Amino acid sequence: MKTIMKLSLISGLLASGIVLADSHSDAYQKHASSSCHHGAGKSMEGKKTFWDKMAERLQLTTEQRASIGAVMEKSRPQTAAIREKIRTNRKELQELARNTQVDDGRVQELARERGNLVAELVTERTRTRHAINQILTDAQQEQMKQMREKNRHHGKG
Description:
Elements: H1 2-22, H2 26-31, H3 50-58, H4 62-98, H5 104-135, H6 138-152
Helix pairs in contact: 1-5, 4-5
């Protein structure tokens, strides 16, 4: 019974990491409301996207916008592939959970795989963020850092 509890805890922690990572998926970004700061497309009301707002706040030059766009395009296939593997892993775990008998070995294997996939996704996103940071001036980097801190504490009281 302790093994099942441990696996449930690990799966829950990993799932919460996936939810955070998955909210940045291409499908989410394409269809997200512009009121959500993660949206990458314009809404029907024509409001500005997160990236448009960010570019304005940081006063990015045309060259910086193009360079950042290129960095994000380069990263998109890797992150999409990792997210697809995560989805497949999640489906397989869900199937195992529906079985009448638990295959502890397979669940542990999938849990480890999930952890590795989340680590890959975090690593890729960190590389992308670092590459974008290299495009920004020191003042823009500091401004971005302050905006992240403000957003991190947004809504917490």
